[in-house]
Write a structure and sequence with these properties.
five-stranded mixed sheet, alpha+beta, 18 helices
Amino acid sequence: MHSQTLPVVNHSFASTDAVVRHLDMNLNVNFDKKVIDGVVSVYYDNRGEAESLILDTRDLNVTKVTAGEKHRRTSFQLGTPQGDLGRPLIISVKPEDRVVTVHYQTSPNAPALQWLSPSQTAGKLYPFLFTQSQAILARSWIPCQDHPGNRITFRAKVKVPKGMMALMGAQNDMVKHPRGEYEFVMAQPIPTYLLALAVGDLDFRAISDRAGVFAEPAIIEKAAWEFGDTEKMIEAAERLYGPYRWGRYDILVLPPSFPFGGMENPKLTFATPTVIAGDRSLVSLVSHELAHSWSGNLVTNATWNDFWLNEGFTTYFERRIQEEVYGKEQSEMEAYLSYQDLVEEVKTLGANNEDTKLLLHLEGRNPDDGVTSVPYDKGYFFLRLIEQSVGRPRWDEFLKGYFEKYAFQTMTTPVFLKYLEGTLFKNDKKAYENLQVDSWIDGPGIPANCPKVTVTSFNEVDTLAKAWSSGTTPAQPKQFSWTTQQWQHFLRALPRTLGNQQMAELDRVYGFSKRGNSEVLFEWFMLSIAANYEPSFAAMEEFLINVGRRKFLKPIYTEMAKTPEGRERALRIYERARPGYHAVSTRTIDDILKVEGSTR
């Protein structure tokens, strides 16, 4: 074998001559060696009588490749490694071939795979494995054409140790198989970033006929209660934008090292346990991942530059589901905090930074660099502006038709804008001009016509925050009936220069350091770092060691790193915490703290 350098298009080495359509996977999960042994049959369309099929791989040990239905041994090459892109697997084929079969083994350091010891799980008895394929990590556990512009179906057989359950983003069984052998089918075409696998000691609880929760036995009852409104959310989503196309909607609660709040794998949302607050106050995460069943999974961004088409639409849809199920005031509080997040993100990135545009420019970069709040929050406010321009009934009719017309297809920003202008604004060009689309899509920062959000529920919050800011301690802390969003706003509204005495009094009155709500805890830790309130640091260290959710980790480590003593503290904590973080998180925190990258 010898190296070969190929052009990269859409973060993939794949050419358009031979396009993958289906995978048949046979996977054996080896916890002792922390590898997956795989045999994958790759079915493809040979559009131009191509003499090679090119797949994306990263750190895969490919031992054999066959071509054709009769498994003819064929030659292959692994091209030159190109950092996060991995290297191309170039397979010699005949023009009449339509399938190749790849025998391989993953690396113990595959960035998509997180192997957890029993001590890192809730039950402490069995190890755990989960995958995270988005954005371009699927290639580190499956040879594939790893870009969002291509959709595939798949079948899979997965062998795991006895006593453990395997789940995929596919049709799942609800019970453990005594021999540890599981079969899966995904009949609807999906992009490869939605390929997902999890293995652990898991139980299942039904929520409705088509929805349920998987989790470790130690937390299954709490999880099932927390997500009890899931069927209501599905019904609300269907009323808004059409039928749910994926059959079942189940949720898997992962160990706390999972780097995201959720991952919208079709039929099986992966969720962080940090949303289990005991009061259903953080389940907007479920409405977000559920909304992806339309925006993202059904209509998919064709390139990672178009990421806002997934996340901006999903954030908008999430708020509409929240409004349907929990009322307008709840969704407006979320929108207000979303605007605050956008302002802070633009301030951090810089008002003229290219990454504050909706249409990103990620060529030559890891697409994970585009995962800021901009695609989510700026995208949301752009769609909210359109709603305000044409009225909700017309906007809802347009969105429902959009999801129907482009179901199981990909979408680019120019195509969407052309469709938007030619349908919704066909007879009102002036209204389209008033949107100032260019300032949203290709302009940096926050456009001047960004919709404003007013929340009456925050009035008493602002009053209390001003009282604390002036040194007044309220006589009667009646605020314990506040929502999570009100507490978030309260802590954000307090000055970053509070003295130790005021911070101690806040903690005494409201018990922030002992809160079980991760969102409130996060805001308290951010305030404590800014105010250099050391009594909070022990709880913060415990939080950082036990929680791998990047949404929390990135701001906390960034805030600590602003001072020499804070950076020292951050490095001490990170040394303990890093082994429990997923590669998605360590890549980010390594960069913040200027730590040498891991071998993962």
